[in-house]
């Protein structure tokens, strides 16, 4: 059975103290909850990965990086490699977030390289994609999502998909307060599962967790998560308050 996952993307928020405080609050708040087939992941900034990883060790909370470089090592000032992430005990990395695509020019081709490097190092990849508002208005959203997934992921062999989590994040819903309706999310998630099934096979597609991201909050999470093909959420703003993030985790139970 595919896992449910609630992942918090802290983006460029929280200094060292705030990161540790939030991690401690999550550990304490989740300690006595029995989570059914649900994983909880947080993605702090690079400089706070080690500290947060230490705080959550032994708890249900896992830690992911928000990005990484595709090369093994070398003269790439300011960058972090997959090996560096695994060397501090990390098991997951977010790749392809729309902010990386938009502000840092990450293309499908670059992301294909990053995904390959992450998988080769044994990292799980939470792979993000999603259409712009103009794509949805022009009814190109399915085509855009299909090309983002196929360009970055469809040259992988079937075995690699065990290490992949997909995150559909319509760009128009990220940080805007505007959410896709539960039906819009379900429609896209079912489409995604179908294209994966068509490319590989139905059994593989059934096992892939597909998360929704974009203004997911305690007030709307339950309805979105109630949909058959929505296996959890990638949460931005609402992941910065322990109470909100925990309420979202509870909404998936
Ligand atoms: P948001 O961000 O929840 O603040 O809209 C989601 C994301 O970017 O992953």
Tags for this model:
253 residues; alpha/beta; TIM Barrel; eight-stranded parallel β-barrel; 8 strands; globular; binds 2-phosphoglycolic acid
Structural notes for this entry:
It is built from 11 helices and 8 strands. With 253 residues, the chain is of the alpha/beta class. The chain has an 8-stranded parallel barrel with strand order 1-2-3-4-5-6-7-8, surrounded by 7 helices. It is globular. The two termini are 15 Å apart. The mean pLDDT is 97. Bound molecules: 2-phosphoglycolic acid. 2-phosphoglycolic acid binds next to β8.
Summarize the structure.
By secondary structure, the chain is an alpha/beta fold. Helices cover 43% and strands 16% of the residues. Helix 1 links the parallel strand 1 (4-9) and strand 2 (38-43).
């Amino acid at each position: 059975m595919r896992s449910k996952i609630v992942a918090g993307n802290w983006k460029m928020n929280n200094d060292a103290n705030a990161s540790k405080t939030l991690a401690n609050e999550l550990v304490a708040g989740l300690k006595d909850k029995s989570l059914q087939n649900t994983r909880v992941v947080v993605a702090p900034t690079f400089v706070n990965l080690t500290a947060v990883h230490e705080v959550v060790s032994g708890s249900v909370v896992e830690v992911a990086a928000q990005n990484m470089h595709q090369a093994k090592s070398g003269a790439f000032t300011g960058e972090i490699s997959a090996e560096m992430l695994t060397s501090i005990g990390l098991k997951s990395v977010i790749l392809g977030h729309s902010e990386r695509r938009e502000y840092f020019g990450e293309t499908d081709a670059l992301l294909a390289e990053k995904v390959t490097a992450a998988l080769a190092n044994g990292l799980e990849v939470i792979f993000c994609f999603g259409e712009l508002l103009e794509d949805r208005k022009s009814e190109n959203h399915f085509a855009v999502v299909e090309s983002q997934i196929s360009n970055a992921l469809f040259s992988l062999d079937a075995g690699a998909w065990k290490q992949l989590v997909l995150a559909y994040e319509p760009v128009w819903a990220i940080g805007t307060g505007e959410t896709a309706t539960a039906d819009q999310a379900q429609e896209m998630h079912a489409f995604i599962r179908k294209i994966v099934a068509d490319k590989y096979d139905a059994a593989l597609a059934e096992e892939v967790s597909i998360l929704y991201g974009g203004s997911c909050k305690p007030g709307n999470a339950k309805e979105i998560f109630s949909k058959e093909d929505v296996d959890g959420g990638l949460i931005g703003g609402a992941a910065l308050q322990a109470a909100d993030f925990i309420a979202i985790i509870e909404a998936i139970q």
